[in-house]
Structures are given as C-alpha cells and as structure tokens.
C-alpha cells in the first residue's frame, strides 16, 4: 500500500525541498510515498503567467482565479476512473487531528489544494473540493505549510515508512494519551538518573510504569484529551 500526494500550489519547490528531507524523504525514495507538486502557474493560460486578480466588490489583496486551478485539477485527474478526494487547506476547514489522519491514510491518493493571497475564487472550490482542513486557529500566508503538516502526519501511518511497525500506533494520541517519557544513554546526566525501572529488565513492570506515566502526563498537560473518549 502506497500513498500518492498531488499538491496544487504556486510554490512547488517549497513542498519538494521540505518533503525530500528526513523520514518523508526516505519514504519517497523507497516508493512508499509518491509526491507530485504541480505548479498552478503552469496552467495560467496567459503569457504573463497571471493566476490572481482583484476581488469583485473591492477590498484588499488578490484572489486566485478559478481557471488555472481548474485546469491543473483536470490535468492531474485526466483519465482517472476514481477521482481522488481534493482537500483545500483553509482556516475555515475542520481542524486536523490524528483521527482525521488515520481516516485519510486509507485513501490511495489525495489532492491537496494550497491557496495564497486573500483566497481562492469560490466557484472552483465548489466545483472540485471534497474536504476542507485547517491545521489550527491561526492564519498562515498560504496553504503549503498546512499541506505539509497533513502529508507528514499521514506519511508516517503508511506501512513501512517507520522502521518499527508498532511505533506509529503506540505514540501520542493513538489512544488519546500522550507518550511516556523516553531516556537513552548515559545512565546519569549531570546528576539526573534514568528511572530505575527502565534499567531493571522487567518487561511487565516497564510496561506498567509507561502506562502510568502516559496517563499522569495526559492528566497534567492535556486533561481535555481524557474527556474526548
Ligand atoms: N491557510 C492559511 N491558514 C491556514 C490554516 N490555519 N490551516 C489551513 N490552511 C491555512
């Protein structure tokens, strides 16, 4: 099972350069994640490469025109029997979380639309968008960082992307609990020791300690998660 991401953006290099690093970069190299960053400007249909214009009715800023986005969408879905979901990154969308990531990870292809300027002409949103996602209640300059947040979160759920099969499911939020604290060498750092139980080799006790730590941390740092069920 692999995941294909097609991103409609005015800044394809921003996506490619960032996604090609670290774990997502390895996943792309290994063919577990496919990334196709499409430049909307290539579909401007205009010798000046124009993709935005003044808002009807007046007001500040520019609005991305529907034509280039629609043509880019048609080009990337051409000949496809099953049209992939098209996710528009916007502060008006559902707030992204681990549950939404798990649901989206079941798809085999996703198209992510990144807006810029003051927004995107409403008509093309009505025509092609199936889902709207926000990454939080703040306003960014464009949808590229949000799209990469979504792609990173989904990529690590693709089987084989993380070396250790259980680590994706065990970590924070998989059961609405935060992760237990982790330690590595040295055994003592500036007078601070690693908890004895972790050096004991007693697997049942270690498991129990970790579970307790997860619950206690969640109670202290994110009590809201305990009530989410
Ligand atoms: N575009 C601008 N701000 C955003 C946000 N918070 N989430 C998703 N897309 C955005």
What would your notes on this structure say?
It is a single chain. The chain is of the alpha/beta class and 229 residues long. It has two domains: 3-155, Alpha/beta knot; 172-228, tRNA(m1g37)methyltransferase, domain 2 (Trp Operon Repressor, Chain A, Orthogonal Bundle). The protein has helices at 12-19, 22-29, 66-77, 98-104, 122-128, 144-155, 167-170, 196-199, 203-221, 223-226; strands at residues 3-9, 33-39, 52-53, 63-64, 85-95, 109-114, 131-134, 188-189, 192-193. The strands form three sheets. A five-stranded parallel sheet has the order 2-1-6-5-7, with helices on both faces. Strand 5, helix 4 (98-104) and strand 6 form a beta-alpha-beta unit. The model has no long low-confidence stretch (mean pLDDT 95). The structure holds adenine. Adenine binds at residues 89-91, 134-136, 138-140, 143, 146.
In a few lines, what is going on in this structure?
The chain has 229 residues and is an alpha/beta fold.
Q: Please write the CATH class name of the largest domain.
A: Alpha Beta
How many angstroms separate the termini? 30 Å
User: What is the number of helical segments per DSSP (H or I, 4+ residues)?
Assistant: 10
Mean pLDDT: 95
Number of strands: 9
- The class by helix and strand makeup works out as alpha/beta
User: Which residue ranges are poorly predicted, with pLDDT under 50 across at least 5 consecutive positions?
Assistant: none
Outline the biggest β-sheet: 5 strands, parallel
What is the multimeric organization of the chains shown? single chain
Rg over CA atoms = 22 Å
Strand content: 15-25%
Query: What's the domain count?
Result: 2
Listed once per kind, the bound small molecules are:
adenine
CATH superfamily of the largest domain: SPOUT methyltransferase, trefoil knot domain
